[in-house]
Automatic annotation (TrEMBL):
Keyword Repeat: no
Domain of life per record: Eukaryota
Pfam family for this entry, one: DDE_Tnp_1_7
The entry's keywords: Membrane, Transmembrane, Transmembrane helix
Domain PiggyBac transposable element-derived protein per the UniProt entry, residue ranges: 8-245
Name of the protein described by the UniProt record: PiggyBac transposable element-derived protein domain-containing protein
Native organism taxonomy: Eukaryota, Metazoa, Ecdysozoa, Arthropoda, Chelicerata
Chain segments carrying region Disordered: 260-304
Length: 304
């Protein structure tokens, strides 16, 4: 617990030791919150009819859940040794992270087609390696490199980016960072006939040679400024694409006003349709039928 002295009415004074059964309930509620989305934590225990989800109140009390969330630790801070720890920046979650990685690897064998990309887990707290990526949905958070099964999106393995403190496998120490990431994520899949897809951040001729030598196919785009590409690779221009536009039966460009209302109704004989038929019948003007414009949507983008 924190060494600060709690106030008289603080929740801290209600703390009691937990057990395995209660922790199982706690984690089940966390998983359920990932399925049942609500904007605020307290809404899960709300008794208002419009917000109520009774299962949360039946499983665990709100105050107890908040206490468990506050004091949840996976390691003992007093036993931490920065010089001997395998990944000092992740010492708080290292044990549970390795446990999850082993489960992901051992419980399921992914299909042949894999994909490597980065993911951003939403986080706005104080952390030295917190990232901002404008194109990602979360925008602020922790950056992960993940290898996923293409068909299902199953995460077969992952690597957390912690800036300069990111720990890579020592046997890939002589390669560039982008190549290290791919080889570390694909290490257990090499030599088994897998096919991996990636973008131009990872793709390079050097990586392609390594994967092909390990009986692993790869797809992806490549930056034309990469080393070891052919000399004229960046200078080659794509072939010019030409297009041919043709016009069918000419349609009169101006409307002809009819003399009578009856003439207007009989101008375009044939079945009624929301769109004019092409080519139009004889004596019919293709631009007489003007479709109703769609209802404009609100353009203002709401933000919190």
């Amino acid at each position: 617990m924190n060494k600060a002295v709690p106030k008289e009415r603080s929740r801290w004074k209600k703390w009691t030791d937990t057990d395995e059964k209660e922790l199982r309930l706690f984690f089940s509620v966390l998983f359920l919150q990932g399925i049942v989305k609500k904007p605020k934590q307290e809404y899960y225990w709300s008794k208002r009819h419009i917000l109520q989800t009774p299962i949360f109140q039946q499983v665990i009390q709100k105050d107890r859940f908040i206490l468990l969330m506050k004091f949840l630790h996976f390691t003992n801070n007093e036993e931490f040794d920065k010089d001997n720890h395998p990944w000092p920046k992740l010492n708080k979650i290292y044990d549970i992270m390795e446990h999850l990685r082993n489960k992901f690897r051992n419980l399921y064998i992914p299909d042949k087609n894999l994909s490597i990309d980065e993911s951003l887990m939403h986080f706005k707290g104080r952390l030295s390696w917190k990232m901002f990526i404008a194109k990602k949905r979360a925008r602020f958070g922790l950056k992960f490199f993940v290898v996923c099964e293409v068909g299902t999106g199953y995460i077969a393995d992952f690597l957390i980016y912690t800036g300069n403190g990111t720990v890579y496998n020592p046997k890939f120490a002589n390669y560039p960072v982008s190549t290290k990431i791919v080889l570390q994520l694909m290490d257990r899949f090499l030599g088994q006939g897998y096919c991996v897809t990636m973008d131009n951040y990872y793709m390079s001729p050097q990586l392609a040679d390594i994967l092909i030598s390990e009986r692993t196919d790869l797809y992806g785009t490549v930056n034309k400024m990469r080393k070891d590409l052919p000399p004229n690779f960046a200078k080659e221009k794509s072939l010019k694409v030409t297009s041919l536009l043709t016009k069918g039966i000419p349609i009169k460009d101006k409307l002809k006003l009819p003399d009578t209302a009856k003439d207007l109704n009989n101008r375009c004989p044939g079945p009624d349709s929301s769109r004019p038929s092409f080519p139009p019948p004889d004596g019919c003007y293709g631009d007489e039928r003007i479709s109703r414009p769609p209802t404009p949507l609100r353009k203002r983008k709401h933000r919190k």
